[in-house]
Amino acid sequence: MEKNKLMKFKSFTMMLITIMIIYISNVNADDTPIHFSNIHATNNWSVYVGTVRINATLAVDHADEIAAFVMGSDGSEIMVGACVYGDNNPGYFYLNIYSDDISTKNVKDGAQENDPLFFKIWDKSQNLEYVVHNNHIQFLPEEGLVLPDQLRYHVNNTFGLIQLSVIDIVQDGVTDLKDVIKLMKVLSSQ
Ligand SMILES: [Ca+2]
Ligand SMILES: [Ca+2]
Questions:
Q1: Which ligand is nearest to the CA of 167?
Q2: Which of 140, 42, 49 is nearest to 93 (CA)?
Q3: I need a surface site. Which of 64, 134, 169, 175 has the fewest CB within 10 A?
Q4: Which ligand has its closest atom nearest to the C-alpha of 130?
Q5: Ligand 1 mean position to 92 CA, how many Å?
Q6: Whose atoms come closest to the Cα of 73: which ligand?
Q7: How far apart are the CA of 112 and the centre of ligand 1, in A?
Q8: Taking residues 110-126, what's their average pLDDT?
């Protein structure tokens, strides 16, 4: 009887360890956004490939996050794509942007053709979220990628490169006069 109990305990422990190993390896293999979470995936999408620089430094792989949004008819923001930086290729984002599901007629649950896209960045180390300013977006031709039509959504293609940048010298989540003053001080002291 005692031996039987011990066997059961051992097999239970082994099962726990196995579950833990599976769980840990999944966490490492699969970058799931924790800030821009709960993205609603639909059956159609496009891939947008690009880079993010925060104060001229590339975003951090497997840490920082990027999300794309469109406007709803009521002026609300609808998140239509989210990913962790570098999850597919080091130094780049590969962002799936999902189309509106036409079967849910009264709900805008994705981007529609020609919808203007806008992007947000989450800097994990500072826990700061940024809206990327239109003036801080550049398009770079890259072989194998379709150059984006400004930032209007089109389904079923792979667009790139999109270069997004954020300037926030005084790291408080906004680009304002304080950043300019700090930058001038830094430059004048050199
Ligand atoms: Ca819909
Ligand atoms: Ca700032």
A1: 2
A2: 49
A3: 134
A4: 2
A5: 30
A6: 1
A7: 9
A8: 97
Report the CATH architecture of 45-185: Sandwich (2.60)
**What is the value of pTM for the model shown?**
0.82
* Cα–ligand 2 centroid distance for 68 (angstroms): 22
Residues 143-188 have pLDDT tens digits of: 999 999 888 999 999 999 999 999 999 999 988 899 989 988 988 9
119-155 pLDDT tens trace: 999 999 999 999 999 899 999 999 999 999 888 999 9
What backbone torsions phi and psi does residue 162 show, to the nearest 5 degrees? Answer: -110, 120
How far apart, in Å, are the Cα atoms of 10 and each of 5, 38, 51? 9, 38, 49
- 89 CA from centroid of ligand 2 (Å): 29
Q: What is the largest CA-CA distance in the chain?
A: 81
Q: Which ligand is nearest to the CA of 180?
A: 2
Q: 37-59, pLDDT tens digit by residue?
A: 999 999 999 999 999 999 999 99
According to DSSP, the β-strands at 45-54 and 128-131 are: unpaired
- Residues whose CB is under 5 A from ligand 1 (ion)? 100-101, 104, 107, 109
